[in-house]
Amino acid sequence: MDDIALPPAAAPAGVTDAERARVFTEWTRVFGPALRRVASSYARTPAEQDDLLQQIALALWQSLPGFRGACSDRTFVYRVAHNQGMSFATHERLRRPPPDGEQRIEVHPDERPDPEGALAAQRRREHLFCAIRALPLPHRQVITLALEGIAHDEIAAVLGISVNNVNVRLSRAREALRAEMGAHRAP
Amino acid sequence: MRHDDEWAAWARDFHDSGDAAPAPAQMLSAARRASRWQRLGYAVELLASVGLVAFYVVMLRRNRATWFVAMASANFVFAALWMGYLTHVRRGTWSAAGSDARTFTALTRARRAADVRWLRFARATTAVMLLFVAGWAPFVLRARWSLYSAEPWRAVVGFGVAALIGVAALVAQTRKLERAERDLARLDAEG
Fold this sequence. Notes:
Chain A is an all-alpha fold. Helices cover 65% and strands 0% of the residues of chain A. The longest helix of chain A has 26 residues, at 17-42. Chain A has helices at residues 17-42, 46-63, 73-90, 115-133, 137-147, 152-159, 163-183. Chain B is an all-alpha fold. The longest helix of chain B is centred in the middle third of the chain and has 43 residues, at 101-143. In chain B, helix 3 (66-89) runs antiparallel to helix 4 and helix 4 packs antiparallel against helix 5. The chains are: A mainly alpha, B mainly alpha. The interface between A and B is large, with 57 and 42 residues.
């Protein structure tokens, strides 16, 4: 995935609104699906996921002028997204129990020719995200970044830990996810 | 299932779920709107603080009675103490030393801990004020009842509304404190 850098001439403090909007739009175009997955990893209901996505968008918008290119765009966007997710997950005001006591993710109409296969895939995805959300935050962060396909050194940069620590944490997170997947077996 | 196959299956399911991201233009307008509302909120808070100080300054210029000067001075001292303590408990929590998740988690924990300390102080202060007003109001009402002879209900309604606001503030602070304590406990448990 290519990085989208601010033009070298644009000092952070001097970024025009149009340039800021251009970079923001490009970031959300490139990273939008990943941001949606981050939101699904921290928030349970579709409404909460939309709330969190909006918070992430606001945080990205506000932090964009401070981005000095010290890390890649992707690292920066994931840092902001996971920081907002962590804040969301630990702030009780923002967490409401799901109405029927179950954990749900948004169900999107699937128009593939095999409806039974599509339903099974939907259930698997729902099951996976339920298990991810049940993990402790440090495990959840590392597992979502690894599932996203991010290299371990970049995960270390996003989380502010060493690569060795990423390896250890990821190994434990995979075990924990496997246990969660077994504990909440899909119907 | 082998671990690599299992991981590949998880990654595939994980990636298949992110196809419903909102349109970038929609996210941009939502972010701009939220940013404007946030700035408006800060402006209103600032305006309210400046307005309160201006109110007392204007009143002090009009009314030089000893009791009023004493009351206004006490209010200023109280506001200074309140702001001073708020600044004290919030030191080191204004911004993160870095932008990575570990630093942000530490900052979030420090902020919640500061919230808890601050809310305990604020609740205790409100309780003391309520006790003081409850003890003091009947004497004031009795002593100055003649001044309200035209419309005596005003004094009763005024005191009643003030009492209601005080009790509501106490309840709100208690609930907020309980939430902040639970947030802090959750953060500690999550590691």
